[in-house]
Design goal:
Blueprint lengths: L26 H11 L9 H26 L5 H23 L5 H5 L2 H26 L3 H23 L5 H20 L5 H19 L4 H21 L8 H7 L2 H18 L2 H7 L2 H13 L6 H24 L11
Length: 338
């Protein structure tokens, strides 16, 4: 896979703005097709980062509207919804891997102890993140979930610095400090710890970090992660004491594989092409749409303390975005596995 610059032998990446280049033909719809149909052999040096941006924007737009899907199955308990997400994601991914004829690439990954440990850790993190988000939707706390995903990009910046040696500039430190102030404001003025926000940010931030550390195609990585969780999901669904689910709800839940896997596939494809800090920059799209869905469509209450915290997060994102634009530093791209 072509890339803008050669990767530093030590794995160090610089926190910079996306490199310029022409987009792939076909736009977002072509991007989604590439994720399912397989990696393109015509990627160019200038097109790699732009393709990564399209993958990322596609993923976060779908995540932004995903509360509408889970509100449609709100009658089902969060744990049962999670189990269906896992089961139908495996089904969807098996079909895709079969269509791409990539089963021969799965077995070498299973023999790598380090990769399997990281993917197993990723499966626990993403399952926890899914469950927390489903609970937030069912308990009418999408605003708090949105705040958590506003914090996630800034947490990703810190994780990239600590674990991947990505360098932060002064304005980026200010952005992280503003995000910390947003959480502190809620704890002091809201008289409660925003645990959903913190837990969502933590699980997804570390999940992104783990996936960045595994040299594996996004499709195969997601298949292994959901397969690790599958026995537990099937055991819960087969348990005689499990809550009954209506036929209509079962029909809607059968779409959860597509709803879950497609944005994650786009996310994984973007993550392989962009630095973790750049992915952090893109992540404001999802929570912004979730905020609008919660406030405009779900009519959730926006207290003064919450609004002040959102303002601090938006200011933090603006500071980071402005710094990235002014710096205009070329980024190093991760290799996409063949």
């Amino acid at each position: 896979m072509a890339r803008d610059e050669q990767k530093d032998p030590r794995g160090r990446q610089d926190a910079g703005a996306p490199s310029n280049g022409a987009p792939r033909e076909g736009g977002v719809s072509k991007t989604i097709h590439d994720v399912v149909a397989g990696p393109s052999s015509k990627a160019t040096e200038r097109g790699g980062s732009r393709a990564g941006l399209l993958y990322g924007l596609t993923a976060y737009t779908m995540w932004g509207f995903i509360p509408l899907y889970f509100r449609a199955v709100a009658e089902v308990s969060p744990g049962i919804i999670l189990c269906h997400r896992i089961m139908w994601s495996v089904v969807f991914l098996v079909v895709v891997v079969s269509a791409r004829k990539e089963w021969s690439s799965v077995w070498p990954v299973l023999r790598k102890r380090r990769s399997m440990l990281l993917l197993a850790a990723g499966s626990v993190l993403i399952a926890g993140n899914w469950l927390l988000f489903i609970f937030a939707v069912s308990s009418h706390q999408v605003l708090q979930a949105s705040l958590g995903y506003f914090i996630t990009p800034l947490l990703s910046i810190v994780l990239g610095m600590v674990f991947l040696n990505e360098r932060l500039r002064g304005w980026q430190w200010l952005a992280v400090s503003l995000a910390a102030a947003a959480i502190g404001n809620l704890m002091l003025r809201g008289h409660d710890v925003p645990w959903i926000s913190l837990a969502l940010a933590g699980t997804f931030g570390f999940y992104a970090l783990v996936r960045k550390m595994v040299d594996i195609d996004s499709l195969l990585g997601l298949l292994i992660e959901t397969s690790v969780l599958l026995p537990f999901a099937l055991a819960v669904l087969a348990w005689p004491g499990a809550p009954k689910t209506s036929t209509a709800a079962l029909g809607t839940l059968s779409l959860s594989g597509l709803v879950t896997a497609l944005p994650l596939l786009c996310f994984g494809a973007a993550l392989r092409r962009l630095t973790l800090t750049t992915m952090g920059f893109l992540q404001y799209v999802g929570p912004t749409l979730q905020f609008l869905v919660a406030f405009v469509l779900f009519r959730e209450s926006l207290t003064e303390a919450r609004f002040a915290s959102f303002l601090l997060c938006w200011l933090a994102i603006a500071v980071y975005a402005l710094d990235s634009i002014l710096a205009r530093r070329p980024q190093l791209l991760a290799d996409e596995p063949e």
